[in-house]
């Protein structure tokens, strides 16, 4: 089976880093500091979309400054707040890979950051294909990242599954006609994922092994 994983909140616990980066940028830019939950609700969206979700009236001419500041703060903080894989993720990915499943990633993170994390966490060799935000014209929840992955492997939608922690992941997969599996340990609850239309919801990634074994 072709398995398409989200990264933030699905494979790696990056919530603290993302929240603290956003809050520090808001302070530096002179805007009200949003709560952890408000910022968490934007995880999975491209950076600019997340900003506009939190600040709908943000002047378009200030977006470049926000993005530049975000990158600067993120690089400063990532050496103090080091994200890690969720428990059981590396072992699960290794098992799925050895069982012959094709593992890929579809993320709204920039390629340099995404591939850097995968390398640092020791799982990059397990993935056959990685889609970052620069690789698509329309990011999640649009199905383009999944459609691009299916095309790369000549795989029908029936042979693939998206695994993610946010409604945008579920809608992305559903839009491409593939099965979807939400993970409840990330940034959205089981109830939210089911409401978004997830075909399955698991509470830990190792549960995915038996789920894909039954096809």
Question: What can you tell me about this protein's structure?
Answer:
The chain has helices at residues 15-29, 36-40, 47-54, 63-77, 89-98, 111-120, 144-153, 167-175, 190-195, 207-213; strands at 2-5, 12-13, 84-85, 102-106, 129-131, 160-164, 179-183, 200-202. The longest helix is centred in the N-terminal third of the chain and has 15 residues, at 15-29. It is of the alpha/beta class and 215 residues long. It has 2 domains: 2-13 and 84-213, Rossmann fold (3-Layer(aba) Sandwich); 15-77, Putative phosphatase, domain 2 (DNA polymerase, domain 1, Orthogonal Bundle). It has a 6-stranded parallel β-sheet with strand order 5-4-1-6-7-8, sandwiched between helices. Helix 1 (15-29) packs across helix 4. Helices cover 44% and strands 13% of the residues. The protein contains 10 helices and 8 strands.
Relevant CATH superfamily of the largest domain:
HAD superfamily/HAD-like
Order of helices and strands: EEHHHHEHEHEHEHEHEH
**Which parts are unreliable, with pLDDT below 50 for 5 consecutive residues or more?**
none
Query: How large, in whole angstroms, is the Cα Rg?
Result: 17 Å
Total of DSSP H or I helical runs spanning 4+ residues: 10
Could you say what the CATH architecture of the largest domain is? 3-Layer(aba) Sandwich
The CATH top-level class label of the largest domain = Alpha Beta
Task: List descriptors.
alpha/beta; 215 residues; 2 domains; Rossmann fold; 8 strands; DNA polymerase, domain 1; 6-stranded parallel beta sheet; 10 helices
